[in-house]
Amino acid sequence: MHSVLDVDNLRVGVPVSSHGIPFMGGSSPNFVEAVCGVSFQIAAGETYALVGESGSGKTTLALSIAGLAKAHSGSIKFEGQELSGFSKQEMMAYRRDMAFVFQDPIGSLSPRFSVKSLIVEPFKIHDLSDRDLDSEASRLLNLVGLTNDFADRYPHQLSGGQARRVGVARALALEPSLIIADEPTAGLDVSVQGEILNLMRDLQGRQGLAYLIITHNLPVVRHICDRLAIMYLGRIVEQGDGEVIFVKPAHPYTEALVHGIPQPDPDKRRELMSIEGEVPSLLNRPTGCEFHTRCKYVQDRCRIERPEEQQLTDGRTVQCHFPLIN
Asked: Would the pTM count as exceeding 0.85?
């Protein structure tokens, strides 16, 4: 399959004030690097999950791919076209083929618009209003398992699961090749999470969609992702086949995340592992391996030398001096 998205050595800086808080205006800001040399590819019809704690840089990375945060260096190719340095106007044409599903199911929908208005708005934004919008609304509602009765409802009249389906319908309006989904199951009951993930997988099979799923919730992506990337302080510290990583993580950070997932087996509940300490500040990155301040396997080399990316025999890559599997 061809590559839909190809990110190579991407670096993105986030502006901060001289006091280390997000820049809100005034004098020229300083920058801290929130995305540090990230590289990955997503093929047509593939689900690539990007997982990390809050502050890991995963949302900044997604905004940069969409042209909403400026990349300082590196390459972003979408369907073979280099997007780095494009203006907002130049990005418009490519946003027809690249859609977002936002984190808050209801909050991401304007309360002033009906469901029909919300899901056909992309046609108006991209000057395609010559389409039969009633027909398009019906088609999109049917795609996500909602009846035409929902067309006249407003966001406050929807459950969380219904609102998420509306968000997916809106994202599908222009038949994109890539959907970027930021915490697609956030705020939903467990049973509804499963329904939404099954819907996304079904749509992928029918329409050949590629997904970039951004989440801090590992259990959510286990049964939907083809490949998995673990992000820490702006770097992808491990990436490869999703199930292989779940079964035998190679990076200590990945191991802690995987072993921190609650298990239904009472014997396994006693094996839960927590990650000691807090995520370090981007303004004060640790020397050497940036995870060494929280790693139970830390050695002297880890404190002074940052690990380079290496490829393991099973094909995955990892940034660790002493990976847990060779």
From this structure: yes
